[in-house]
Amino acid sequence: MTAKGASQDLTQAIKEIALRSGAALVGVASIDRWDPQPPYGDRAPRGHHPRDFVPEAKSVIVIAQPILNAVMDAPAVLADMDIELIPPDIKYPYLEVLYNTTGHHLQDEMLQFIGQILGQHLMSSGFDAMVFPTTGIHPRLPDASIPEKQIWQGPSRQWSDQFSPFRYSPGPFSHRHAATRAGLGEFGYNNIVLTPQFGPRNRFNSIITDAELVADPLISQPICLRDDCLLCQKACYMGAITMRDDPQVKDYRSVPKVDKARIFIDTPAKTDPVLCNSRRDRIAEAPIRGDCARVCPVPKERTHLPKRLQALMEEWKSRP
User: Fold this and answer.
1) What is the tens place of the pLDDT at every residue in 126-166?
2) How high is the pLDDT of residue 95?
3) Average of pLDDT values for 15-26?
4) 294 pLDDT more than 50
5) How far is CA 113 from the centre of its chain?
6) What distance in Å separates the CA atoms of residue 118 and residue 320, rounded to the nearest whole number?
7) Which range has the worst mean pLDDT, 58-62, 285-289, 303-307?
8) Cα torsion 222, 189, 164, 136: sign
9) What is the 3-state secondary structure (H, E, C) of the chain?
């Protein structure tokens, strides 16, 4: 035991099991890190705080797997080509499925599996544990006459109290916010968590427990390149990413000023997922989803990029 009573042995065992089971990264956050933190004072929405799931929660374990670089880049590059065996009218849907299957669904299933393994170990050690789906939940609506999109998205980009403030079906627990609190990374300008190892190319999951584990230190140096980059926002084809202090876009996440000198434990940006997900409906040859992560030069510049992103990267590299 450490001086504060946290179990060093159990913490080490949990991390070893996670890594042995396929996690690439694992971190631990103490429950006090869900108290609102400066400068924004963001709080977990009611029903989404760790103690809403485990009343005596003391720790949150966060696990991550990377999206492989070629999995992220190749579908976008192939979208610029005539693919010999794929009819042109289904090329984009085909590549979207390729990316989603190997860049999201695969990690989602594996991270849920690892979470269950860790939960079983905690339970066998006498502790409670809560595991989660890696992504959002899409319930069947009891009233089939109500369009599902209306429930989540509302009638327009401007949020009203009648609809979900997130404009999509959220997960029960924010793994991104848990990841920053477990010391795995910080939010970037693209509203995605960046890790030193994989930049924004990560998928996360969380396990809440009443075991008192040894918390990892928070990130102490910026990972996002901030105003020296801005590639993610330039790459967003639909203009769906804005900073939280953008005076043109007001909603519940708006703040007077984004403090760029701080580590982004809470996100400095906001995204409109409806704009992102409807890009193909509005622009027939819009790029494959994920350009805001694809173009990020953290941890290193990418070279296998579609033409549009290559041009952005070259422009950025040649800046004064």
Assistant:
1) 999 999 999 988 777 666 666 666 666 655 544 445 566 66
2) 94
3) 98
4) yes
5) 19
6) 49
7) 285-289
8) negative
9) CCCCCCEHHHHHHHHHHHHHHCCCEEEEEEHHHHCCECCCCECCCCCCCHHHHCCCCCEEEEEEEECCHHHHHHHHHHCCCCCCCCCHHHHHHHHHHHHHHHHHHHHHHHHHHHHHHHHHHHHHCCCCEEECCCCCCCCCCCCCCCCHHHHHHCCCCCCCCCCCCCCCCCCCCCHHHHHHHCCCCEECCCCCEEECCCECCEEEEEEEECCCECCCCCCCCCCCCHHHCCHHHHHCCCCCEEECCCCCCCCCCCCCCCCCCCCCCCCCEEECHHHHHCHHHHCCCCCCCCHHHHCCCCCCCCCCCCHHHHHHHHHHHCCC
Cα 1 from chain centre: 33
Any idea which of 55-59, 75-79, 160-164, 199-203 has the lowest mean pLDDT?
160-164
Above 90 in pLDDT, residue 257? Answer: yes
Instruction: Please name the residues in contact with 160: beta carbons below 8 A apart, sequence gap of 6 or more.
Output: 154
Q: Where are the domains of the chain?
A: 8-136+171-315, 141-169
